[in-house]
Amino acid sequence: MKMAGITAGALAAIVAVMLLGKAGVNTRLDDVLNAQSPPEPKPGFTGQTDAPAPAKPSPPIAVQTVATGLTGAWAFAILPSGALLVTQNSGTMRVVRPDNGSVSAPLAGVPGVKATAAQGLHDVVLDPDFARNRTLYFTYFAPPRGQAPATWPITHFYEDVWTKPFAERRTMDLGTERVARAKLSEDLTTLTDVDVLAEGVERNIVLAPDGTMFVLGADRFRFYDSDLDGVNHDFTDSPDIRRNFTGRAIRINRDGSIPKDNPWLNRATVLRETFAHGFKDPEGAAIHPQTGQLWAVDHGPQGGDEINIVRAGRDYGWPDVSYGTQYDARQPDGKKNVPVGSGANRKEGVEEPIYFWVPSIAPSGMMFYTGDMFPDWKGNLFVGAMSAQHGHHLVRLVLNGDRVAAEEKLLADRKGRVRFMRQAPDGSIYVIAGAEIWRLTPRR
Question: Which contiguous run of DSSP H or E holds residue 420?
């Protein structure tokens, strides 16, 4: 059976997602569509995937639940007082106090948010001078003009769009990805002076050592002749379409102005804020503490999750090159493991990921550990794994330069859907796991 371009299997999957959403489960379309594991591709170099377990496993970890009931929690910033400013995908910010587990009422002044599928209220980052200027930065999906803020079913953003002809898609105003700055009141109840700095990106914010800001956003397939999980043809004849509309890392100054050394300023057909392009859904990013380079984790289609070092002007392949395949549930003819784009896993002119996963772990969140509380973890990279099929866990990656030397699964026994993590000033780690926030310390 096929309805409006949806296979019976895909329709059943989407219904399942909607029912899970009504039950308050923090889920997404990729979790359900990734039901099949594609064959593992040949890596481009030794150690690019399937790293061994570390020679020395992590010490026992104590896990303290510091807050519950935070449905759709996406990210948080650690305030100078030690409280956490938490975003929820539906469009609310709340203050969590880890010392007593209290969760505040929603903050006033947060701009209207349209939550649908993976779009909504996402990252929040404090200005380095926050204690003096009260400034913070955040990303969100704004509803179109005249539409009230609301949570929409997952089918609205996906099936209602990708089944339409490209020309029709271009007439749709679904909303706008935005990055903004604001000030947080001294009593932690209100955002003021909200100012939109850029549009077209709404995932991660990373403050760079040079004072600029990176913001990453997901593929905006609705604006070009593409599908959510790739294309069925080579895309190299239209490079500027990919530079403008695939998942991007942009680079702006903290007031929204454009740095004078951005890579595409001499090309009028590329958006001037664009720093790098060719991502699908980058849901975690961080600055390497030694090199100062931007690293990002990209959520692939069916398999092909990647870790990339994001460099100026570089192409990261989507939707033409991927280590994953198109979703089996999306194929009307029942085919499996249909290639993405050109069908190539790698191509000249496309940056190789330093690491990839097949099958997908559904990665989200990224953090380099620099503290002293877990001395064996210093310099390690951490990524959340949200895939229920392959086990919710926290990924620890031991690095050797810019290569992954070892991979370890942590917290798998707790079955928490790890969305985000951030190191506290004392070296402990706070983690969003489903609707809870955990604090990780060494077990004594």
Answer: strand 418-423
